[in-house]
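Apologies for my clumsy wording, but can you show me some protein sequence, whichever is easiest, together with the matching structure tokens, please?
=====
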Amino acid sequence: MTAPDPVRAAKALRGAAAAILVLEGIAVLFVPRAVAPTDEGLSGSWLTALLVLAVALILAGGLQRRSWGLMAGTVLQVPLLLTGVLTTAMFFAGGVFLLIWLYLLQVRKELLGSPFGDPVAPGDDGEDPSPT
């Protein structure tokens, strides 16, 4: 099944991807608060890594208009899941976000024919529509 208007569907899916990435960035910002009161505490390097990841996720949400934005968001799913090393709750939260991301890629594949490719407008296959 493909979308009747692939360009419009791609815009909607980019918006959904951006929203997911921003929510992931916000979720990562809660990790330091959960880890700080533990016996091990939170080192400066872990705090820096978490803040960099949160900023990268939020910026990737803003970059979804770029052709490589979806790939950047996909790559950032790995470090998001690895935040579970600090607190096991993030294995669960990161896993849920990863499942949502994979579902979004599957819907994009069904509607546009490719999870990462650019949409092609109907009738814009490079051929001249008028017979000669």
Q: What stands out?
A: The chain has a mean pLDDT of 84.
